[in-house]
Design a protein that fits this description.
Elements (H helix, E strand, L loop, with lengths): L2 H29 L4 H15 L3 E10 L3 E11 L2 E14 L7 E17 L30 E17 L10 E13 L2 E14 L3 E3 L1 E9 L2 E10 L4 E9 L7 E6 L19 E9 L2 E10 L2 E10 L6 E11 L1 H5 L6 E12 L7 E13 L2 E13 L2 E10 L2 E10 L6 E11 L1 H5 L6 E12 L7 E8 L2 E3 L2 E3 L1 E9 L2 E11 L2 E10 L3 E11 L2 H6 L5 E12 L5 E14 L2 E14 L1 H4 L6 H14 L1 E13 L2 E13 L2 E10 L2 E10 L6 E11 L1 H5 L6 E12 L7 E8 L3 E2 L2 E2 L2 E9 L2 E10 L3 E10 L3 E10 L2 H8 L4 E12 L4 E15 L2 E15 L2 E15 L2 E13 L2 E11 L2 E10 L5 E11 L2 E5 L5 E4 L3 E10 L4 E9 L5 E10 L1 H5 L7 E13 L4 E14 L2 E2 L2 E9 L2 E9 L4 E10 L18 E10 L12 E16 L2 E17 L4 E13 L2 E11 ...
Parallel strand pairs: 4-5, 74-75
Antiparallel strand pairs: 1-2, 2-3, 3-4, 5-6, 6-7, 7-8, 7-9, 9-10, 10-11, 11-12, 12-13, 13-14, 14-15, 15-16, 16-17, 17-18, 18-19, 19-20, 20-21, 21-22, 22-23, 23-24, 23-25, 24-27, 25-26, 27-28, 28-29, 29-30, 30-31, 31-32, 32-33, 33-34, 34-35, 35-36, 36-37, 37-38, 38-39, 39-40, 39-41, 40-43, ...
Length: 1532
Amino acid sequence: MSTRMKRIFKIAGITSAGIIILLGLLLFLLSTGLFNNWISETICSTANQQLNAKLSIEKIEGNPLSHLQIKKIILEHNNGKLLELDELEITYNIWKIIAGKLEITSLELNGTSVFLQQDKKGIWNLEKLIPIAENPEPNVPSSPFSWKIELKDFSVKNFEANIIANDSTKLIPRKVKLSTSLGFEFAANLMQLNLHQLEINTQKPSLEIKDIHFQASLIDSVFSWTNFQIQLPKSTIHSKGSLPLNQLLQSEISLQANPFDFEDIKEWVSGIHGKPQLNLEIAKKENTSHLDFSIQQENQTIKMLGEMKDIDGLPSFHFLLHADSLNGEYWTHRADLKSNIKGEFELSGKGLDYKENTIHAEAKFADLRYKNYELDNFILFLDKNKDELDVTAKASTIFGKLDTKIHLKKLFETANYNADVKIANLDLSKLSGNQKLKSNLNLNLQAIGQGFTPGELQTKIQLQASKSVLFKQAITNLSANILIDKKEYQIPKINFEAPYLMAMLSGKGNYSENNQLHLELKSKNIAAPLLALGLQPIDFDGEITSDLSGPLNALDFKSDITIADAKLDSLVLQNLKASIHARFSGTDLFVESDSVSKKEASTDILLKNLYLSTKVDAAYIAFEKYYLANTDFTFEKNKENSSGSLTSSTILGNLKSKFTINNLFTIPVYKIESSLKNTDLSQITKNEKFRSNLNLEIAANGTGIQPELMNANLEIRSNESSLFDLPVDNFEANINYNKGEYQVNGFQIETPFVVASLIGNGNWKKKNQLELSIETTDIQQLNTALETENVQLTGQLNAKLKGPADSLHFLTTINVEKLKLDTINIQKIAADASIHFADTSYAGFLNILVNDTKIHDFDLQELQFKSKFNQQKASNSFSFYASDSLHGKIISEIKFHKDPSISFSNILLNLNQHIWTGGNDHNYIRFGRDSIEIHQFEVHSKESALKANGIFSFNGTEDLQVELRDINLINISGLKLLPYQISGKVNALLHLTGTANKPNINTLVTINNPEIDSLRFSKFHSEINYSNDQLHLESYLNGYATQLINAKLDLPVQFSINQKLLLPKEDNSIHAIVKIDQLDINKFNRFIPVTGVVANGLLSAQVKIDNKINDPHIIGKIDFSKGALQYKKLGINYSNIEMHSSLNNKLFQLDSIHINAGKGKLQLKGTAEMESLFDGTLKNIDLKLSGQNFRAFDSELLKAVINTNLSINGTPESPTFNGKVAILNSTLNTDIFLKEFNRVYDDSNQPLLVTARKNAENLKVQYVVKKDTTQKEPPNIYKKLKGNFDIEIPRNTWVKGKNMNFELAGSIKAIKENEQIDFFGTMNVKRGYYKIYGRRLEFEEGEITLTGGASLNPIVNFTIAYKFRDPDNQLRKLTVNVTGRIYQPEVQFFLDENSIEEKDAISYLIFNKSTNQLDTQENSSMKSSNLDIAKDFAIGQFSNVVKDALQSSLGLDVIEITGNTGWTQGSVSVGKYITNNLYLNYERTFTIDKKDKIIEPEKISMEYQFYRSLFLQATNQSTNSGFDFIIKWTWK
């Protein structure tokens, strides 16, 4: 070896050693982590260049040759974190790379946070990390992958992803948390995965997967898995199988879930419930694949069996699906999906190429039920042979029969089809569940043609109905015939004819080149079908005629509408005619585009090019109290310009308006001119007091509608207007707006009673300055106009608004003096407020001061409220002062949070010298969304307290306590807020627990020594408990000696706070006991609304109720003893009132009611049987009323003694009554009667005919008013009550007064055959007189005959006589005859049986001479007669006074004091009924002039009535003494 070679080897050795040393040094340095920072920076720099993101790594630790720890990896995108990883640790064998193997021993990710967000276009931020290449490189075929990758242990801990998706309808969770552990191996033609554990939790929607584990492999395109298990909270899924990716038909799969609870995935698969057993088995045997799939839930089953043969060649298949008892309500929890599905579906065929294969399908369902629908014997046949398809379907349903045949050819080209559908006996009421849609439709539909695409469609469609009925009315014609040949169509006629609607459509054309369509609609009596459809019925009589013509791009539409009469609820149309003319392009209307923006653009084009002209004339349009009469409306739009007008007479006044709007689709230019005249507010408000006559002129013009572009002016003027009949002196407004700047000029209203004005200017966003002023002037004029005196007011309101929109300041002051409103009087009200709005915040104050208030008899000297507030809270102070014994102050704070609250820091009340205090720093009342929380609220006095603490929830848990302790009720009486004096001490406790849906309520109330006016008791106690849908009540009331009332009740009630109260069901049980022990009703006299009525007696009762609510068992008794009733005004004085009765289930037994009055008594007894106590239905009634010498009334107004015997009995369907009432003696004082009812007339001296007519009119008016306003609907038993009773008036019934005194007798029969009671019979005036003009008119004959009828209009026949001597001293007789109906009487006057005129009759009454004798020739005699008249009147009035005094003091029935003309002679007659049939009379004649002598001054007579027409009269008067038999008949 040469020296040179040695040198070369030496150099090479040294060099190699150096390289090895350097390489070793490098590896050593790498192992120490010296280059870790450089590696970190290089990775970040490279990633930042390649990604649209910023990658940062806090640090890298470890040996890059074997393991690394990377801390805090952050990936940011658009200044937001996309990914953050706390720690990544990896261990690997780098030397295996030399052998082509990537071996990672472990890879652990800990604390991973990912933020994913989707933009409006649906692109995720993760997709935007990699930039889109401008010139993407072409795909180069890759060489086969020869590396082997092995990841022995991969784990993820504390992984969390937050996701914001643009489409909320997709099932993308908002948050995902997971942890996993797995092993992975990958090589050429080999992949193995061993998932040890995977735990996933998601939110919105929520999902919890407790564990997933399996082993899987992919070898030579066969994917297989074993030990697959998913563990959910309530379900476990097991699976194994293999899946050849290139021969899927050879797959084998096994899957079980026993059971699978849909509750585990309820937020991912909403609306599905149940816990079915799931099984799936797919197995391969030789060249055949078998399928067995089942879902089973109790008796509900879905099972599919199938097989596929020759899977390696031309497969043939056969599948059978069987369903049994499937109920949609169970799976969905929706009652409307209740069903019962039983049947099977069979499918067989050959080949998987859908164009070339053959398929046969059959469906047979013997029982198919859904809701109330049933489908019997549903049969479906389907046969497909390459491109031909035949379908046959038959079904028999509860709503009709179906028979369908369809044949199709060339399925995959332009399909030819022939369809025949027959529907028989279709009942829409059974289909819809609406019985009003009862129908019987028989339809036949045929369709023959080819193609389905518009423009290529060729078809002929025919529809024909026969013997069809809809809405209980026959359809006389329902047919259609349509021919379509690509773009050509022909509609000879589509007809629908029924009694309520006629519709016809016809036409032909080419839809793109020429169209000609005609539509006619006529409707009348359409209410019945609308009611059936559940719509508001309409009374409608009208027709519509429309025509559409022209090519598609230039269509012309014309329509005429005529409505003769239409009525919908409160809407009324009469004689309306409208015409519409439009031109538009159908290509714009029917544009097809997937782009929403393009469709919107096409709509804009359609509207821009549309021509529209409308004219409406309506005679009358009304809605409730508002109407339009003689209305004319026109509107025309042509491209971008429009104009129109409106004239109408409305309830608001006479309206005239016209308008123009140009540049509709750019910047509109508009002008509106309107006038509204003769506006009467009384017509609008239906209050005559608000009468007005307002006449307004309104003008508006401008450009633009966007605030930043708009320029507009508004002017309002009033001309000769009035309000409440007072002139409106000034009413004008002028408002200008120009691109944000506004000016309010002279917005003023001036009336005699109030003046208001608004002025200002500014820019809403930048600066505002508005001032409002309202001031009263002369309210008295308003009171006069409104005809009221209860309102007085002097006041002023001033308000200001200033500042920009983001810093507005509002200030207002109100000053009111001498406010009077009904019974409220306030001397002064002063209020001021200020609010400052700044951006989203606000702050301000409110002060109110009210001085000297009087409400009825309650005086309040001062009331003051102060509040300072902002958006967070309001600090309030409320105080009042009525007197030294009634005043108070409350300091509170309101917080405006999500759940606002109020707290009371100080409460001080002096109520009738009792000091109540409360408030602290801890109490509050918080108002939540579904609850009210009361925390430590308490007010108390020295001996009393009110406490509340807890939660009252509307939807949650309840926990509330309220306590009243020793509340003295006499303090409430001291406030004079109640009409009665009350006292007693109240202790009460309310405890509410449970939930809002099922609350528990315990209530205890005790009142010691309760007193209400004269009612005084020892103790009242009540307990009310509610729990588990059961109400228990127990109460008692104690007197000072005994327990007066005791009651217990147990009743099932469904009560919840968040739902309405459910009343007990009819079959619920009930238990109740009520006891009353000798309750003295005298204590309740104070509360009887009729003054003067005094009742006494002891009420006792004991009633027990058991069994069911709809069939209660009631046993008990009700007694009343030692009773009395007094009412001095009517002379009612009933004593010894006793009642004994009993209850035995449905029978009420009234043993007796006894009432004594005078020397007689009244008795009522009987029974009443109920059909059902639940609804109060009466089954039978039997009551009898009897009485003898019963003094019903005994007063100066009315006296009456009666005998009675009445009965009522029968069923509610046919009740009857009968009996008799005899009035033994009675007296009616007309003077007192008329005085009591305010009917005393000042002028009793009107002419008789005038009086009679006015009385008739008054009687008639009174009857009509009573009939129309006060008569109530009689009860059912009264409607059906039939029978009769007699009213006997034998005599001794007197009608008395200062101007009358007469006796009545007669017999009346009352008969009821329907709701009306008819009165028949006759009453006679036996004797008596009537005085007018101081003259006494004797009844010679008087008769009133009742003839029945709804109107009480009897026949009268009165003859009244006045005897006098005329100036010639001749005895004359003036007779007045009143005959006919009382409402239209005929009055005749006779003098000595000769007819005379009314004026002569009046002259004879006053002057004893005719009018012809009152002439100028007799003036001297008139003067002397005037003295006589004065004397007659004076003595007549004196005699009335004497007579009234004697009659009232002596108890006589008749006293008469009479005298002749000039009272030279007179007589006194007194009479008295000894018995009802025996009358005794004494008469004494006297003379005032001693020169006159009386031959027979005394006369005594006695009269006895044997029968109605037979009398015995005995007279003792000197020579005229004797007996007379008198027989008296009256006839017409």
